[in-house]
Structure prediction request, 164 residues.
Amino acid sequence: MELTHLDEHGAARMVDVGAKEVSQRIASAQAVITMKPETLRMITDGTAPKGDVFACARIAGIMAAKKTSELIPMCHPIPIDSVKVDIEPISETQVRLVSMLRCTHKTGIEMEALTAASVAALTIYDMCKAVDRGMRIDDILLLHKDGGKSGTYQYQPKKIEGAL
Prediction:
């Protein structure tokens, strides 16, 4: 398999997308943050000392998506059509953040989706670290992408042998 961000001598390069076709591109990604039950209750009750944690995390995710090319060296600046960040508790200790992005461009928007979900989770950590430094961010992954030459990708969780 060829790594597109390396030239024939192994030097880093930004991929030339000039000859690619413009197409509709979509991508979604997730992150999961685990915390103490009392931390999540504080967030959902609206009593966090720094304010509305989920609202701030959504805004941070949107802002991060727009800055991805400034953070990831080989990413192209992309005209993003839409960014949405959904945040929902999935247990008494976990919150799942899902970013959904859309653009019409010559290259994909997967890195922007991953950045949005990651930074939204990091924002939750930042806003709650004074009460729970043991929070953990896991399961950052691309859920879905569509568009472009490589077509559609859909995350398929691996089955663990012997699991129900």
